[in-house]
Design brief:
single chain, 119 residues, alpha+beta, 4 helices, 18% strand, globular
């Protein structure tokens, strides 16, 4: 097994910890055609490890738009901001749900909504 291999046990733990929902946008995996997948919060190319504390459960769309990025620009201020980190940040500190829209509350929220094209 390579250093970056996500085992079946790790995959189960990731799904259970996320309650079967994308840890970025909140979409339940039962509402999609493409299965959710583990995402390296800090990409391996940036030194992120394949360990539970660095893995998030992500829908196909969020995972593809996030890619290996760990930062982006806040579309309001043009400042570089880190992306939302599911292990270190509280979702409700950066976002609010209004109907089906994810409303960003902070620069991190704005940057994450922008880069992941959440709405």
């Amino acid at each position: 097994m390579s250093a970056g291999t996500i085992t079946a046990a790790m995959r189960r733990a990731i799904v259970e910890r996320a309650y079967g929902c994308c840890e970025y946008c909140g979409l339940p995996d039962s509402a999609t055609l493409a299965p959710h997948e583990p995402d390296h919060i800090v990409g391996e190319q940036h030194g992120g490890k394949t360990a539970l504390e660095n893995l998030a459960y992500a829908c196909f769309r969020c995972n593809r738009f996030k890619g290996p990025n760990i930062a982006t620009r806040d579309p309001l201020t043009a400042q570089v901001v880190v992306l939302f980190h599911p292990r270190a940040d509280r979702w409700d500190a950066h976002f609010r749900l209004e109907g089906a829209e994810i409303v960003p509350l902070t620069g991190v929220g704005r940057g994450t909504v922008f880069l992941l094209r959440m709405n």
